[in-house]
Amino acid sequence: MTATGTFLPRPGAAPLLRMIRAQAALETRMLLRNGEQLLLTVVIPSLVLVLFSSVDIVDTGGDGEAVDFLTPGVLALAVLSTAFTGQAIATGFERRYGVLKRLAVSPLPRWGLMTAKTCSVLVTEILQIALLTAIALALGWSPHGNPLAVALLLILGTAAFSGLGLLMAGTLKAEATLAAANLVFLLLLVAGGVIVSLDKFPDAVSGVLELLPISALSGGLRDVLQDGGPMPWRELGILAVWSVLGLGAAARFFRWE
User: Fold this and answer.
1) Please, what is the Cα angle at 211 between 160 and 130, to 5 degrees?
2) Which of 21, 126, 128, 236 is least enclosed, having the fewest CB within 10 Å?
3) How do residues 29-41 score in pLDDT, each as one tens digit?
4) Is the Cβ–Cβ distance between 224 and 78 less than 8 Å?
5) Is the pLDDT reported for residue 74 higher than 90?
6) What is the pTM of this model?
7) Residue 202: count of CB within 10 angstroms of its CB
């Protein structure tokens, strides 16, 4: 029996970690239920891997199998599709419909909401990488290299693309974000070293393309997983710079409504 005017359970905000975990779970469920997002994040990378590994149209730059060249690039493409394109589009429309405005006045702090979105991206990427790895192994992929280097590349790549995606979603209108995010995805698919080696471009162009985050991620993964190379410090440095710039700009210029 309780005294008059008291309530059970006691009203008030849940613990911060529980709020972040609940929001991350909600974000993940929403993503997995969205057919268009699944097409972008799962179906397209899988089709690229299967199609270009099965058809002899990819110049691997050596005597290796096509799947050994393609898999690192497709893993980078999966990070791009989830952390940048998918997150930018989803967040842009949440901002347009006032979802972010309402969440911003909830007990969950704004940085907690961004943390929950990042956790959702990481969960989705883990599922993507597991699926793509299984497909690649079935196609005859023979990975090499240091798993720590691979993990660092994927984490920094996620941070870089998340920052850029949130910056786009927080500054452009939703329709502009939808068009721009898809356009960037297609351009980087062709010119980011995913399925076409940067060696095929003129030297002046390839020198610029190497500084893009998708090129650093795909190139670093290829150096480690295909060639068994050492820690790719140059590529990690490029991704770290993009991470700082992207996340810093997103924190500075993101508009919640």
Assistant:
1) 50
2) 126
3) 877 777 677 777 8
4) no
5) yes
6) 0.87
7) 7
